[in-house]
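User: Okay, second chain of the day. Same drill as before: sequence in, C-alpha cells out.
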Amino acid sequence: MTAPTERTLLVLRHSKSDWTGGQADIDRTLNPRGQGQAQDVGSWLAEQFPVIDMTVVSPATRTRATWALVSAELANSPEARVDERAYAASVTDLLEIVKELPGDLRTVLLVAHNPGVEDLVYLLSGESIGMSTSTLAVLTLPGTWADAGPATATLQAAGRPPLLA
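Assistant: Same drill. C-alpha cells below.
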C-alpha cells in the first residue's frame, strides 16, 4: 500500500481565552465566547473533514480546552498528541512538528498560538492571513510531511467557522 500523495494540514488558533483570572499565560482557559467559537469549529470540521487522523495540541490550557470542545463535535475524534514545542512556538518549531508527522497520516489538525500559526501558514503557502482566535486555515501539501517547507502548500480556505472562505 502506498502512502497518499497529498496531505491536509488544518491549522487552528485556539479560541478566545479568559483574561479575568490573573493566571499565568499557559494556564488561561476559554471565556464563554471562546467556548462557542470552539464548538462552531468542531461542527464545521465534522461536516468538511469527517476523518482527521491526528491532532497536535499545545500544552496550554486554552488550546487543550479548544480541542476538547472541537473534538466533542466530531463523530470520530482522532488521537490527540500534546506537544510541548507548540506552546509559544516559532514558525521553525511548528514546521519541525509538521515535518516529523508520521507518513501514514493524511489529515492533521494543529492547535496552537499566534504569531506562530500565522507565520506557519505564510511560510507554507506564501499567503498572509490574519489568524484571530478560532481562525482555521486549510492547507494541502503534496508529497510527504517531511517535504513541508517554504511555498510547498496551497491555502484552500481560511477564516472563522462557520463562515470559512
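The chain has four helices and seven strands.

User: Thanks, on to the next one.
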